[in-house]
Design brief:
alpha+beta
């Protein structure tokens, strides 16, 4: 087994999601994810954070293969993912393809297809292999600590969404277009290479925080909602620590909510940042 394949199979978070390797070539990796209720939203739709995790795992597996033997530390420097459709109570397959390899960077495209054969997400990622032995710490978080008002939806969302419950996410604040979510460290979130939190788990926190900021502005209701698009950058591999995400709606255009999100560690250093486009049809 190659080091890249071992990283996929031995990372606790990939195991928790249930990711399986279907094929592993020099410039292409295919991953399978059978349906599990714990990965879903109410109604059996796969949570957006799972698509992001599949994209990260597939892209890093390709990059780790392409740059095999090159010393360094891998992380997802850039991610753009579009959610095309929902996979409901069905497994999915991720197809990761190398687009270009550089000395430290690999550009990878990852498409996810449902068991019924529909394209459900499409992502492009830039994976960096940082040659420095020690990654530079991220910047200080830019947001000011908010209050502790989970709002009308906070506690209910945690109980109602299987994916959020399985990750141990808690909504600490959710009011007036802003949300703060916490994700305590657990072994099931681990990355076999870094020993810290897996990027897939961190991006799930980022994705969920952006969505909750939208709900914090719209208020609860019998609405249809989804994440059409997410852009994110991992500034430094997340440590073995509790993580906190702060999200703020910076613009609303009818049913589309644009939320900026920062994820920081217990030293208030930013590990990742991104923008979530969330759609609530009222």
């Amino acid at each position: 087994m190659s080091e890249a394949a071992a990283w996929v199979e031995q990372s606790a978070y990939a195991q928790q999601l249930g990711i399986l390797i279907e094929s592993f070539d020099d410039d292409r990796v295919v991953l399978a994810l059978p349906y599990r209720e714990m990965n879903s939203n109410p109604g059996g739709a796969l949570h957006g954070g799972v698509y992001a995790a599949l994209s990260v795992v597939g892209a890093q597996a390709v990059a780790r293969t392409a740059l095999a033997g090159v010393a360094g530390n891998f992380h997802t420097a850039g991610l753009q993912i579009n959610y095309l459709a929902a996979a409901i109570e069905e497994g999915v397959t991720a197809y990761a393809q190398l687009l270009r390899r550089g000395k430290e960077l690999c550009f990878v495209q990852v498409g996810v297809r449902s068991g019924a054969g529909r394209d459900v997400s499409q992502a492009t990622l830039m994976i960096r292999n940082n040659p420095d032995a020690d990654a530079q710490p991220g910047p200080e978080r830019s947001w000011v600590t908010l209050g502790d008002e989970p709002g009308k939806m906070g506690a209910g969302v945690t109980r109602a969404v299987p994916f959020i419950h399985a990750r141990g996410l808690s909504i600490q604040h959710m009011d007036n277009g802003e949300a703060r979510l916490a994700m305590p460290w657990q072994e099931a979130h681990g990355d076999a290479a870094t020993g810290g939190v897996h990027e897939g788990a961190m991006l799930a926190l980022l994705d969920t925080a952006g969505a909750m900021a939208g709900w914090a502005l719209s208020g609860p209701g019998a609405y249809k909602a989804s994440t059409p698009c997410m852009q994110a950058q991992v500034l430094t591999p997340p440590p073995r620590a509790d993580l906190v995400a702060h999200a703020r709606v910076v613009h609303r255009d009818n049913e589309i909510f644009y939320s900026d999100v920062e994820v920081s560690d217990d030293h208030h250093r930013v590990c990742a940042r991104g923008t979530i486009l969330y759609r609530i049809v009222t």
